[in-house]
Amino acid sequence: MINLETVKTLRALRLPGMARELESQLEEPQRYKALSFEDRLALLVDAESSSRHQNTINRRIRAAKLSESTASIEAIEYHEDRELNKGLITKLATCSYIQENHHVVLKGATGAGKSYIANALGIAACRKLYKVRYVRLPDLLNEFAVAKALNTQGKVKMAYAKFDLLIIDEWLLRPLSEEESYNLLEIIEVCASKGALILCTQYDTDEWYYRIDSDRAEGDDSAVAEAILDRIINNKYSIDVKGRISMRKRHAFAGSEKSEVSANG
Description:
Helix 4 (about 35-65) runs antiparallel to helix 7 (about 115-125). The protein starts with a helix and ends with a helix. The protein has a five-stranded parallel β-sheet with strand order 2-3-4-1-5. The chain folds into two domains: about 1-65, no CATH class; about 65-250, Rossmann fold (3-Layer(aba) Sandwich). Strand 3, helix 10 and strand 4 (about 195-200) form a beta-alpha-beta unit. The protein is α/β, with parallel strands linked by helices. Helix content is about 55%, strand content about 10%.
């Protein structure tokens, strides 16, 4: 009875890890019989520490607003035709690039799996307790435009400056207007200087110049495009995501094959 009351007290004190471990010890007393009081107490403390650590990771993943919150480095598919550099991806999974203030550019056609890899790297960063945010470029530009109209762009910049890793999907999917390019520079300026960026794009970096500032006259230089490129291009890892067929189609084929086996079984 006393032990059960202790479990309730631990939960009331918001120590669920310790409560679960104590319940386990009560349910299997023979398993813990040979342990000293100090050893059993250490198990309770370790359980609570692990529980809090996992809860923190879960909160970071939710706050990141990832498009694929179940993505993982381990589940990345290295089909021969994709020509992925497994060594580089494994290195990036350590998140050292974030500490070193380097960026990652994932280039590939629609459906190649760029977003999945970016999300997997995002979750790897969350597991190391980095602050991560995923956003589509059109949504980011719209958010900043609305903030400027309300004269709250400073708050938006401060919010994005807090992230250690910013993942921008659909990077330069369409050419930007002059105002959009300047707004983008404002965000890149605050994010690229202290943390890391992951950019998912369909275009080679030598095509970015025009797409960032498409309103300029032909032959004219673009100070804003050069400023954005300078903060990214010379400080990046590049991953070309190839493949003869899209990952969506590949998985659709795999799913239909499983269904056919099940039906014939």
